[in-house]
Design brief:
With about 55 residues, this protein is mainly α. It has one domain. It is built from 1 helix and no strands. The chain starts with 17 loop residues before the first helix and ends in a 30-residue tail after the last helix.
Amino acid sequence: MPGAVVPTVRIQAEDFDVAAEIAKITQGRADIGAVVTFSGLCRDEAGRLAALELEH
């Protein structure tokens, strides 16, 4: 599949521009029917957080 997007997961503390990230992965593509994104927060719960699990 030419131009296929490789799934990527990044966990970071720095701010980022969602629109710029979407523009990067869709640039020059005419075969995309939809773009789906997920952004989330994980609460510390007073220092009791031991893990965060992401399944995709």
